[in-house]
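Re-run requested by the PI after the first attempt was lost when the workstation crashed. Everything re-entered from the original request form. Ligand of interest: NDP.
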Amino acid sequence: MTQPKRIAIIGSTGSIGTQTLDTIAAYPDMFKATVLTAHRNAPLLIEQSLRFRPNLAVIGDDALYGKVRDALSPHGIEVASGSVALTHAAAREDADTVVTATVGYSGLAPTIAAISSGKEIALANKETLVVAGEMITEMLSHSTSKIIPVDSEHSAIYQCLAGEDKESVSKLIITASGGPFRKYSKKDLETVSASDALRHPNWNMGAKITIDSASMMNKAFEIIEARWLFGIEPERIEAVVHPQSIVHSMVQFRDGAVKAQLGLPDMHLPIRYALAGAQRLLSDEPCLNITDYASLTFEAPDYDRFPCLGLARHALERGGNTACVINAANEIAVDAFLKGLIRFTQIPEIIIHTLENITFIEKPSYDEYVATNAEARRVAASKISHPQL
Ligand code: NDP
Ligand code: MG
C-alpha cells in the first residue's frame, strides 16, 4: 500500500483550514496532516492537533506558545511559535503538499518557502499572487514546485484547461456571486454595516474574504490571481456576475466553444481536487442536481458601484508594486471597516489615497515588496486615524 500524502496546512484553524482537515479525515488512507499552524486560536489548534496528531503545531502569536506546548508536548507533538516558525513549517521534509490557507499578506513568506523547497502547493491564499504574482511566477519557472489552485474559480478554470492547449484559449470568464450588495445603489452602500457585509448569500468564509466579496475586491484579486496562475493577459480575463454561484468559472476557446465547471457552492470539492494533485476522488458529499436550478443568470459587473474592480485593472496595467500597495491598503481598510471605524465606501477611497502616496517600483525585489507592504499599511492606517490629512 502506498503511504498517505503528507499535508502541511498553513492556517489550519480558518475556514479553508478546517475544510481541509475534513477532507483529510474523509480519506485517511490517502492523506495525513503532518503540520498544522494557527495565528491566535490556540484552543482550536490544540483540539485539531490532539485529533490529527501532526508532527508539528505552530502558533503565530509567541505569547500563546506556553499554552500550546503544555497541551501538546506530552503527546510527542513538536510545538513552535512566531512568523519565522510559520515560514519554516511550509518547507519541512515531512510534508509533500502545503496548503496555504492563511489570510492576506501573511501567506507570502510561507508560499515562497514552499516553492523554494519544491513542494506541491494547494494555494488558497490568493493574496500571495496579488502581492507578488510576477516574482512568484518567476520563482516557479525555476522550481520543481507546482501550484494547484484551491480558489473555486481558479480550480474551475484549471479543470476546464485540463487536456487543452493553452494557445487555443481565447478568454477566461471568472464568475462572481455579486455579494450581499449586488442590488444596492451607491447611496445604499454609504450606510451598510459590517454585519450586513458579513452576510454572504452563497458562501460561508472567513471575515476578510467575505468583506472583499461584498466590495468585489475579491473578484479584483481573482482577476490578478488568474493572470499569474494561467499566464493569460489581463485583457483576456473577464468577470461576470452569476448570483447562483453554480457555474464556478468558464474558459472560452478560439473555435468559440465555452467549457464551464459547475457544482454546489462548497469549497470541499476544490480542496479535495487540489489535495489529490488535480485528480478526482470518489465522494459521497451532496452534489449538484441541475434540475434544482431552472435558471442560471449572468450579468455584467458594475464598475461604478464597485470601484475595487477597476483597481485590479489598474494594478495589472501599471504592474510593479501597485497590486502590493492595493492589497496592503485593503487589509487595513477592511480591518477598520470591521471595527466600525470607517464606512464601507471609504475602503476604495483609502486604497486610492495610499496608491497616490507610495513610490512606484517597476520590478520589486522581495525586500522591496516587504517594504512596500509595510509603508502602504502605515499610509492607509494614518489616513484612517487622520482623515483630514
Ligand atoms: P480565515 O480568516 O477563516 O482563516 C485564516 C487562517 O489564517 C486562520 O488559521 C488564522 O489563524 C490564520 N491567520 C490569520 N492571520 C494570520 C497571520 N497574520 N499570520 C499567520 N496566520 C494567520 O480565512 P479563510 O479560510 O476564509 O481564507 C484563507 C485564504 O483562503 C484567504 O487568502 C482567502 O482569500 C482564501 N480563500 C478562502 C475561501 C473560503 O471559502 N474561505 C475561498 C477561496 C479562497 P487563527 O484562526 O489562529 O486566527
Ligand atoms: Mg473565489
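Saved to the shared folder this time. The chain has a mean pLDDT of 97.
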